[in-house]
Design goal:
Low-confidence stretches: none
CATH class: Alpha Beta
Number of helices: 6
Mean pLDDT: 94
CATH architecture: Alpha-Beta Barrel
Number of strands: 7
Strand content: 15-25%
Oligomer: single chain
């Protein structure tokens, strides 16, 4: 599956709808870890059909079992989630499976496990959140890109 260059990450139907109306090729449904599986299922269950109507990809973040239940052909997993190879076993060989990779070592591991793309996280500080510890900066991005080779990287 082709990896679009633009990934819209949201936890609301309204943002997904607006992004799709503007031509977004991929919506990643991403919520806080504390949100229940049922709530994620309900939210992604509203967004996935909107994506299908527009020919866009719906990615369910961190919860491949919900992607499977919704027949969404894509998921994104973090370093502490189900491994990429196990995620692919759940969703099948044609699923789009992305993996978080904030370091060259994690990029290497995710690629070896079969990740279709890497998400390297926050490059610059946020003006809306105090998450300075999550910023990898331009040097971190360059390091992940150097390790990624032909594997697409989104930031």
């Amino acid at each position: 599956m082709h990896v679009p260059r633009l990934h819209v990450i949201t936890d609301t139907v309204g943002v997904a709808r607006a992004a799709l109306a503007g031509g977004a090729p991929l919506i990643q449904v991403r919520v806080e870890d504390s949100v229940s599986d049922r709530a994620v299922y309900d939210l992604a269950g509203r967004i996935a059909p909107l994506c299908a109507e527009r020919g866009a990809v719906c990615v369910v973040n961190d919860r491949p079992h919900i992607a499977l239940a919704l027949r969404a052909a894509a998921t994104h997993v973090g370093a502490d989630d189900l491994p990429v190879h196990a995620t692919r076993a759940v969703l099948g060989p044609d699923a789009l499976v992305g993996a978080s990779a904030r370091t060259p070592e994690r990029a290497r591991q995710a690629i070896a496990e079969g990740a279709d793309y890497l998400g390297c996280g926050q490059i610059n500080p946020s003006v809306t959140k105090d998450v300075a510890t999550n910023v990898i900066g331009p040097a971190g991005l360059r390091a992940v890109l150097a390790e990624a080779g032909a594997t697409p990287v989104v930031a």
